[in-house]
Amino acid sequence: MSNTPVTSNVNDFGQFAKLRASARDHDPAALQAAAKQFESLFTTMLLKTAHSGDSNGDLLGGPEADIYRDLYDQQLAAHLSAGRGLGIADLLIKQLQSAKAPDKGGAAADGSFPLTAPAAPALPLDASRPAATPASADSFVDAIQPHAEKAAAELGVPSRVLVAQAALETGWGQHVIKNADGSPSYNFFGIKADAGWQGAKVSKATQEFSNGVAHTETAQFRSYSSPAEAFGDYVKFVKSNPRYAEALRHNGSGEQYVQGLQKAGYATDPAYAQKIANIAYGRTLKAALAEPAATTTRVA
């Protein structure tokens, strides 16, 4: 019968595959065993490193002595890791348990899991306009939501689509075009002052796209006295312009509506419709509208 203590099996590499498979199934016992194995291996490395430079001073030096010392280090590491051990296993288990559980099928190819859940990258909706803070987004949505609902009812589309379009055009209200005296123009939709416009105007540099290439030019934009006037003119602008007739045949779908606007040349940005859709059903607008985070179903 062997006198080897049971703790020595913590260094048995033949069992490691089984431990890892059980750990993937979130088996607490397997997780603890794997953490203990890691602690033992780590301790063995520390012991080996501690006396790696003193072999020449051994009275019984030689290959046989090295073998016995390695075996002794492994047994000593196993004993040191037994019970409460050095605390390394406990720290590892705590970190693993605090990490978010991966989605089904979310393990890496080698069967391992990340120690910490990766953060979702923040994707800018428009590189020329910084994303809004939650507070500024809330304020912007609160200010225009009643007008967006009224305008959306007239156009037959969800109000969130108009809020999203206004958010894209103005950087969530942070870049509304200003008049010469510094007052806001309330031009939330980037509508230019064409020859038929009889109201106030304001000049501003704007980014346009030509053959997919962005460039800057100065243009005249419409200026309004209030948000209500701005949304009212937007509805009139879309409904009275024959080029947007196809966009208005949207069957209640906000996405078809903005795709129709893009096809009709409302904006020269080739990703205009997609950017609006991203905002309309994105986390920032959901939070501003106080919608549950788990809501993912789109409203046509």
Compact overview of the structure:
This protein is mainly α and 300 residues long. The chain has helices at 16-24, 28-50, 63-81, 88-98, 134-155, 159-170, 227-240, 254-263, 272-280, 283-288, and strands spanning 201-210, 213-222.
In words, what does this structure look like?
The protein has 300 residues and is mainly alpha-helical. The protein is 45% helix and 7% strand. The chain contains 10 helices and 2 strands; from the N terminus they run ααααααββαααα. It has helices spanning 16-24, 28-50, 63-81, 88-98, 134-155, 159-170, 227-240, 254-263, 272-280, 283-288, and strands at residues 201-210, 213-222. The chain has a two-stranded antiparallel sheet with strand order 1-2.
The structural domain count equals 2
The total beta strand count reads 2
Give the helix level as a range of percent. Answer: 40-55%
What is the CATH class name of the largest domain? Mainly Alpha
Rg calculated over all Cα atoms: 33 Å
Order of helices and strands: HHHHHHEEHHHH
Q: Gap between N and C termini, in Å? A: 74 Å
Name the shape in a single word.
elongated
CATH architecture of the largest domain: Orthogonal Bundle
Mean pLDDT: 74
Structural class: mainly alpha
